[in-house]
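Bifunctional folate synthesis protein, Eubacterium ramulus. Tokens?
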Amino acid sequence: MDRIKIQNLEVFGHHGVFSEETKLGQKFLINATLYTDTRAAGYSDELEYSTDYGKICHFMTKYMQTHTFKLIEAVAEQMAQALLLEFPLLQKLDLEIQKPWAPIGLPLENVSVEISRGWHKVYLSVGSNLGERQQFLQAAVNLLHECREIRKVKVSNLIETAPYGYTDQPPFLNGAVELETLFTPQELLHLLNKIEAELGRERLIHWGPRTVDLDIIFYDDEIIAEADLIIPHVDMQNRLFVLEPLNMLCPGKVHPVLHRTVAQLRQELLEKAEHR
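Tokens:
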């Protein structure tokens, strides 16, 4: 990914824990590395294809001047998100907020907070086998669309499949969703659980019937093993109802643990089924 660097942008703001800081204000310095594709701008030499660093500098200056935070951690976090939402060509940024001569009662030249934030490519598996199945799935997708921290939502065709694991239940409609998000994996999991609850999901039987089921399959190429979240999804390679819709969206996506593409995993599972 190409990078545009902004160094030592001086901004006067009113951020700090002490009342003197918020009343009198002080100078802050901003350093930013913008990750974006500069190729179209480089070939065309047209500003419309560029991530305009001039506009970004003015945006950061105005943001610092019109907001007040106690912590520079909050300044960095909130401004990074605002930038990523405001400038669509910006895929990621490294942002440093420097606070010269921070009032800690000791000789100190500078304190700074530096963070990296960006859009993450995510793939979900979605399913429903209760009530108006297609309507439940569409409602879940609509709720994803409504979230400002999510963009570029794409949905596969839906397929009907037999239940998996617990088989004494109605057939499922299954699909896959591709999206980009600013959420961390845990934040995204929390959102998905909230959407499931809002659409009436009840967790009564393991692998049991549900109005809507939303599972994170891939989050970039991250490998996560936590008590309530495993990414890539631990059993996806054994679930044709996951691989078939996923193959419609990203056949070439490589599983970061198994090191095989979605298309290869699907083909292997089909071949296993043929030999049973």
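Residues 120-274 form a domain with the Alpha-Beta Plaits fold (CATH 3.30.70.560).
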